[in-house]
Design brief:
It is a single chain. By secondary structure, the protein is mostly helical. The protein has one domain. The chain is elongated, with a radius of gyration of 18 Å. It comes from Salinimicrobium marinum. GO terms for molecular function: DNA binding; DNA-directed RNA polymerase activity. Keywords: DNA-directed RNA polymerase, Transcription.
Length: 108
């Protein structure tokens, strides 16, 4: 599981050095493909975690007052909205050399 509070990933858009991004693979397209797959994994993890936390506050009655006044649910949602995007987290992991990858074609 990712530690979302201790990431160095930027929240805003930043320019990256292409040479740093493609250095591990010597192929920018392969690097982007790996980062993309990791971003999808991160997105799935974050979504699952968010849904679990929001489910804790779910009420199963039809009272409209409770739906609009669930402050805990709003705070959880605001926390997740302020996080860096999954692709930003994946790029930071890639640059920090925290993503394991292997080229199956070169191993054959």
């Amino acid at each position: 599981m990712i530690d979302l509070k201790r990431t160095d990933a930027p929240v805003n858009t930043t320019t990256l050095n292409k040479n740093k991004v493609d250095a591990p693979t010597n192929n920018i397209y392969e690097a982007i493909s790996i980062i993309s797959k990791r971003a999808t994994q991160i997105n799935t993890e974050i979504k699952k975690e968010l849904l679990e936390k929001l489910d804790e506050f779910a009420t199963y009655n039809d009272s409209l007052d409770e739906i609009f006044e669930n402050k805990e649910q709003i705070e959880v949602s605001k926390f997740y909205e302020k996080l860096p995007k999954p692709h930003s987290l994946a790029v930071q992991e890639w640059l920090d050399d925290k993503i394991y990858f292997r080229n199956t074609q070169s191993e054959e």
